[in-house]
Q: What sequence folds into this?
């Protein structure tokens, strides 16, 4: 039986909708009373695992799930050994550098050398500032990174912006965008190569559904 790793949070609803469109029903994960982390879909064809977004590639990399759905931001940060199969065209957001609206920094190059940048995406942040040749200290955080500049702990943040509401309501502004991100379908490379559980058909069904939805 195929196993699908599904991300908790923002991407869950659209992920479940897409899987429903190809005949796999994991909608029980959306029930507010549900506490089960593993369910078999109604047809008995596949199993779903409900995991933290950052853990989706881990289950896929180790082969406990043959496919998974995750944001490109996580793939870029963690660089897991998984096959990147389909851009699913939902969960659109961008990775940006943001500062306090009242700060004098209008571009990343205005930030002071040896200043601090708070982020959940430390690899991405480090790589970006290295590419600018600007030596900054990256401060790793697990969430609510907007508090970095608000409290004065850091001059800037590198974080995901979706609607922009969180930045606005916390008095921050973007000064540059590093890249755009959407949800992606990933697979365990060997399972995909061996077509375990007729994986190719499922992937093609998902690809066709996504293409018909965007065209
Ligand atoms: C993400 C991100 C921003 C927010 C952006 O946080 O880190 O804080 O969403 O969304 P917006 O532009 O639509 O306001 P998340 O909800 O994952 O919470 P966290 O900060 O606790 O990780």
A:
């Amino acid at each position: 039986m195929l196993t699908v790793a599904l991300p908790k949070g923002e991407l869950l609803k659209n992920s479940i909708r897409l899987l429903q469109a190809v005949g796999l029903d994991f909608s029980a994960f959306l029930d507010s009373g549900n506490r089960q982390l593993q369910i078999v879909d109604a047809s008995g064809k596949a199993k779903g695992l409900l995991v933290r977004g950052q853990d989706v590639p881990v289950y896929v990399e180790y082969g406990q799930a043959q496919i998974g759905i995750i944001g490109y931001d996580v793939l870029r940060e963690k660089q897991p050994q998984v096959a990147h199969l389909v851009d699913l065209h939902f969960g659109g957001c961008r990775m940006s550098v943001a500062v306090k609206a009242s700060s004098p920094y209008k571009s990343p190059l205005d930030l002071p050398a040896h200043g601090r940048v708070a982020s959940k995406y430390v690899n991405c942040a480090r790589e970006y500032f290295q590419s600018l040749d600007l030596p900054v200290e990256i401060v790793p955080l697990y969430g609510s990174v907007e508090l970095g500049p608000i409290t004065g702990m850091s001059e800037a943040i590198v974080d995901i912006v979706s609607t922009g509401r969180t930045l606005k309501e916390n008095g921050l502004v973007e000064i540059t965008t590093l890249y755009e991100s959407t949800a992606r379908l990933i697979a365990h490379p060997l399972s995909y190569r061996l077509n375990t559980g007729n994986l190719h058909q499922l992937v093609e069904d998902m690809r066709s559904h996504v293409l018909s939805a965007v065209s």
Summary: The CA atoms of residues 22 and 205 lie 6 Å apart.
